[in-house]
Amino acid sequence: MKTTKFLDATGLACPMPIVRTRKAMNELESGQILEIHATDKGAKSDLTAWAKSGGHELLKVEEENGVFIFWIQKG
């Protein structure tokens, strides 16, 4: 998947992954994709809900060695 921007939110606790994601999304244009890496277990539900409420599309979520990887397309 071709990403436009990468955000490393590993080691950050709630609410910082959301705060940083919101800031990064503001720098993107509609249709561009943000890849986020986070280790906070709550990030999975938080980012899923945040993407939906913000009109963005959560394209994919994976977990590798305790790191959650999200791909969100800006709405």
Automatic annotation (TrEMBL):
One Pfam family of this chain: TusA
UniProt cross-references to CDD domains, sorted A to Z: SirA_YedF_YeeD (cd00291)
Protein's organism: Siminovitchia sediminis
Residue intervals of the UPF0033 domain: 7-31
UniProt record similarity statement: Belongs to the sulfur carrier protein TusA family.
Annotated protein name in UniProt: Sulfurtransferase TusA family protein
